[in-house]
Amino acid sequence: MDAGKQQTDQLRQMLDQSRRMVVFTGAGISTESGIPDFRSPGGIWSKNEPINYQDFISSEKTRIESWRRRFALGEVLDQARPNAGHLAVAKLVQRNKAACVITQNIDGLHQQAGVPDDKVIELHGNTHYAVCLECGKRFELVPIRQAFEQKPHAPVCDLCGGMVKTATVSFGQSMPAAEMHAAREQTVNCDLFLSLGSSLVVYPAAGFPEIAKRNNARLAIINRDPTGMDHLADLVIHDSIGPVLAAAVDPE
């Protein structure tokens, strides 16, 4: 038996034995759908410095640049579709094997794959809609984009006049308290923590595998490159997520 098949079989056994799994996903699961990641060489942040939240708040020019970048990425984000990894994760949720999906991603592909909204904990928000930073009103992006293309400007809330921003967490912006609490609770109570496509080097994301292990859960990591938590894992697979997970979830 080759090493790859042996690892896939081991992963399948871990999935079968789990009764309350948590799936944790990072950019690596979505690069297989054509969405570039942020941190890697050639990634988005190597081409544009990330915009700090305080700069967004204090500068009209920076807000315009932030929206310009979002709409420049629009075609890639809007055309991306769930891949085999997203679909396999959705099956784990639908079969009540996975209690939830905790994701660092902002692309909404887990929901597109069939994971219910209430089973997805988005730590960094969602880029497919916007919110008013003052009153919280939600805005769809199509009318904002149409107005921006006519005259580039930073949109404001028609209800309270507050600044409108994509519903994502920027550098320097506080992590969402409710989502962080929910993610921690799910991690404390899981028996298997399955990390997919995250480098696990940046906190608070890197803290979740440690929490899971401290509470006697098993840890499985699938990522193309080594992660900061490989040494803690019960199983590490350095390979593409989609084919490996699909084979483990639905063996032939």
Automatic annotation (TrEMBL):
InterPro entries: DHS-like_NAD/FAD-binding_dom, NAD-dep_sirtuin_deacylases, Sirtuin, Ssirtuin_cat_dom. Pfam families: SIR2. Keywords: Hydrolase, Metal-binding, NAD, Transferase, Zinc. GO terms for molecular function: histone deacetylase activity, NAD-dependent; hydrolase activity; metal ion binding; NAD+ binding. The active site is at residue 124. Its EC number is 2.3.1.286. Residues 1-252 form the Deacetylase sirtuin-type domain. Gene3D superfamilies: 2.20.28.200, TPP-binding domain. SUPFAM superfamilies: DHS-like NAD/FAD-binding domain. The keyword Cell cycle does not apply. Zn(2+) binds at residues 132, 135, 157, 160. PANTHER family: NAD-DEPENDENT PROTEIN DEACYLASE, NAD-DEPENDENT PROTEIN DEACYLASE SIRTUIN-5, MITOCHONDRIAL-RELATED. This is protein acetyllysine N-acetyltransferase. It comes from Desulfosalsimonas propionicica. The lineage of its organism: Bacteria, Pseudomonadati, Thermodesulfobacteriota, Desulfobacteria, Desulfobacterales.
